[in-house]
Every structure is written in C-alpha cells, then in structure tokens.
Write a structure and sequence with these properties.
Largest sheet: 4 strands, mixed
Distance between the termini: 43 Å
Number of strands: 4
Shape: globular
Strand content: 5-15%
Length: about 230
C-alpha cells in the first residue's frame, strides 16, 4: 500500500530512532498488505512523545487521512506498557490480529489477564445498554435514525462477543456470525436478534420499519442478560 509506506517514511523523518514500533490493527490486519485500500488503523509507539511531536506529524497525518483512513494512534512506549489492563479488550484484539510494519515486536510480550477482560467487557455491555436507551429515547419515532444506529451497535457487540469467548477460553471462529452464535450459546442468549442486525450491517437484508421497535427491545433484553452473566463470571 503506497500511501502507508509514504506515511511511515514521513513519520520516521519526524521522529527518527525514537519510534519503537508501527503496526496495523483492526479489520485491515486480516488482509494482505497489497490488498489494503483504505480504512487502515495504524498505531505508532514512540519512546517519548510530546505535543510538539504530534504537531510535527500533523501535516503527514492529514494527508494520510485524506485517503479515507482513520486518525492514527500515537502512544508513548511507557503508556503502551502500562495500560494493557485498562484496555484489555483492545489489546486482546491486537494480539490476535496485527501486522508489524516497522520496528520492534512490542505486542507478543504483552499479557492480557482474564479478570481485566471480564471487568472491561461488563463495563462495555452496560455502556452499550445506556447508549441504546439514549438513542431510542431520542429517535423512537425515526426508524431511519435507529437503523443507522444499529450499525454502530453491531460493531460494538461483535467486539464484546469476541471477548466473551476469550473469557471462556474458547477458540475464536473466523467469521462474525459464528462468533455471535458461539458466544450466545456460552452466555445463554437468543442469538437471533444479534444475527439479524449483523446481516443488516453486512447489507445482506433490509429491515422493515415495523420490526425496528421489536429489535430494540430484544437487543436491550439480551444485553441486560449478558451483563448479568458477565457479573457472575
């Protein structure tokens, strides 16, 4: 991916030998480098990092983002080492799927503990419940707005379900549909509402306006059960 190579070289010019590691994470990390087009999440770990460093990298970053890529994550190395418990879910995802672009392998030595995953996962479920309630309160009479919100909800609960499987020490299936099915079985949930929303996010189906309310209510009910389940682990 030429844009990625250009961006990394520009950042190396600004930060030099202080760069510890540059890697890709997220869905793009499941692809081959030559297949990357856009929407590439990049993390840049730096020995020490100041506001001036970020300012120096701002122009190159702006150019990188013009190619429809998210804002890169810049992290000081000490910070990277110290927050694996706070961001256990994110670190677990990175350990499972990443591509090292430059520098050292700083990912393999990181340990993600089960109790940190359980704590953050329950927090994320309860936070998602609050977000859904707020969105429904605001958009109860706008089915199109709720359908748009479903896409965001789906991205969040698929991440949560991957974590549920890690907590149970179950091997993660490759496709999200199987992740949902397996995690729902582990937690005693009805998989149907999650699978239907996943199909909608993947543009495999359309949702009728008269089913939106029932989907919201089913989603709230199943996520509440999931929060209780995680609290008991």
């Amino acid at each position: 991916m030429n844009h990625l190579n250009t961006y990394v070289e520009q950042i190396k010019e600004k930060l030099g030998s202080r760069i510890k590691s540059v890697f890709i994470y997220g869905s793009a990390a499941k692809l081959k480098l030559e297949d990357l087009k856009s929407n590439v999440n990049v993390a840049i770990i730096v020995e020490d990092l100041s506001g001036d460093d970020l300012k120096e990298c701002a122009k190159a970053t702006s150019q990188w983002m013009r190619h429809k890529n998210p804002v890169p994550v810049f992290i000081p190395y000490a910070g990277w080492l110290s927050v694996s418990g706070t961001y256990a879910m994110e670190y677990a995802d990175i350990k499972d799927s990443h591509i090292l672009i430059y520098g050292e392998d700083i990912i393999s030595p990181i340990t993600v503990h089960r109790h940190d995953l359980q704590f953050q996962c329950e927090h994320e479920v309860r936070n998602l419940l609050m977000v859904i309630r707020k969105q429904y309160l605001i958009h109860a009479h706008s089915k199109n707005a709720l359908k748009k919100a479903f896409i965001s909800f789906t991205k969040t609960f698929t991440t949560i379900f991957r974590t549920v499987l890690r907590i149970k020490d179950v091997e993660l299936p490759i496709c999200n549909e199987e992740v949902v099915r397996t995690a729902a079985t582990c937690a005693g949930l009805d998989e149907n509402v999650f699978l239907r929303l996943l199909e909608y996010k993947n543009k495999c189906i359309t949702l009728k306006n008269d089913e939106v309310d029932s989907l919201v209510n089913a989603l709230l009910s199943e996520l509440f059960k999931l929060a209780k389940y995680l609290n008991q682990q």
